[in-house]
Amino acid sequence: MGTELLDALTVLESEKGIEKDFIIEALEAALESAYKRNFDQAQNVRVDINQTTGSMHVYAQKEVVDEILDSRLEITLEQAHEYNSAFAVGDTVEIEVTPRDFGRVAAQTAKQVVTQRVREAERGIIYNEFIDREDDIMTGIVERQDSRFIYVNLGKVEAILSKNEQMPNERYHAHDRIKVYITKVEKTSKGPQIYVSRTHPGLLKRLFEIEVPEIYDGLVEIKSVSREAGDRSKISVFSSDPEIDAVGSCVGTKGQRVQAIVDELKGEKIDIVEWSENPVEFVSNALSPAQVVNVTVDPTNQSTTVVVPDYQLSLAIGKRGQNARLAAKLTGWKIDIKNETNAAELGIFPFVEGAQADKEAEAAPVEVETVTAEVTAEPVVTEEVVEEVTAPTFVVDIEPAANTEE
């Protein structure tokens, strides 16, 4: 088995990147255990593999003593002198004890050790490759799913997509190609375990980096991301170059760039806003598409009071408070939204008489015929509208989201 083993180790070293010396050391340790187990020997032994010929030898290590208490571990001075007259009491003598049929044991052990080391080395290579891909995006193929996980093939390893990380509006089928965000890579006894997500805000950021060259080149910077996966997201962008339109770069010609991301996220709506170090401008932009009349900042409490036109209150708040909630996460500021009428009553912002009616008329223009036909309508409708638009306030109090900058 000598030269054949060395040739096999050489091939492994070139193909798998596993050092020959590393496997030989492991093989020697395994052969020592195999010798003690198969030949009922408990003494100290050492296995030596000749890296030139591949031959294997087993040596028993015994201490030179005046009186033997355990013949398996000790040897007298007279016996030691039979091997070398230079030995003295306290020295260690190595005596070859290689069994005749040790080759059979060695072959079986070598197979097990080499297989184990190759598996460990491959796991190590995969772990080292994917640990560098944490917080990155990859394309995988859905292989199978059970009640807890969807298993995504990333090429060399199978990743886990848990229920909490799946988008609620998506249905996954075998052989579907999907983009996933790698959230964590763990080293386990069964090899590296990769956890991926479809709901992480980082997925949205990486998709923009892929679709928008200006972001990839560093000309446009993504400052923050807030996301409610499968429904709506907001992203703030900024460019230090005044000649570059950060928002326009992300939208693309006829919206092609952002549309590609929307398609990948199965129709998730995306608001792209301009970032500003001025909280007044940033909060105003973050509440888009609602128009903002005034923003009052309270730096001490990290909060803002926003005044919007009466007819835009529901738009600023959003469905189930979503627009305001996403804006608060995006900016990191608490947002208290009030309409103009309520703000004027509280003395927060002056209300200009007649301006509200003009804004309402601009927001919902109607034909003259329609207005004339509805002149005889009961005034109760007007009272209901007034009651609705004078809703007192809507407050979003939320912890700032972690900045997604790398």
Automatic annotation (TrEMBL):
The keyword Transcription regulation applies. One of its GO terms (cellular component) is cytosol. InterPro entries: KH_dom (IPR004087), KH_dom-like_a/b (IPR015946), KH_NusA_2nd (IPR058582), KH_sf_prok-type (IPR009019), NA-bd_OB-fold (IPR012340), NusA_N_sf (IPR036555), S1_domain (IPR003029), TF_NusA (IPR010213). Gene3D superfamilies: 3.30.300.20, Nucleic acid-binding proteins, NusA, N-terminal domain. Residues 133-199 form the S1 motif domain. GO terms for biological process: DNA-templated transcription termination; transcription antitermination. It comes from the Bacteria. Pfam families: KH_NusA_1st (PF13184), KH_NusA_2nd (PF26594), NusA_N (PF08529), S1 (PF00575). Residues 229-292, 300-390 form the K Homology domain. Monomer. Binds directly to the core enzyme of the DNA-dependent RNA polymerase and to nascent RNA. Belongs to the NusA family. This is Transcription termination/antitermination protein NusA. The lineage of its organism: Bacteria, Bacillati, Bacillota, Bacilli, Bacillales.
